[in-house]
Amino acid sequence: MGDLQFDLPCKEQLAYFVGLGILTALEVIDWPVALAIAVGHELARSNHSKSLREFGEALEQA
User: What's the pLDDT tens digit per position in 1-52?
Assistant: First the structure.
């Protein structure tokens, strides 16, 4: 089975998601748009973290 890992967001990410929630609650943006933004943001962060982790592992092996 795949390695499923969930990390709690840092303060900056939490503020970002709270801001999206507030914009959604005030109906500035629709919830599907907020959801798409949040998912895209998390995927980009996850991919960036994975790339950095792989780069660090490659440096350790060198």
Answer: 456 666 676 788 889 999 999 999 999 999 999 999 988 888 888 776 677 6
d(CA 20, CA 54): 30
Give the tokens for residue 43: 């995927």
> What's phi and psi for 7, nearest 5 deg?
-105, 140
What is the distance, to the nearest Å, from the Cα of residue 37 to the centroid of all Cα atoms in its chain? 10
pTM assigned to the model: 0.63
- Burial of residue 1 (number of CB atoms within 10 Å: 0-12, 13-18, 19+): exposed
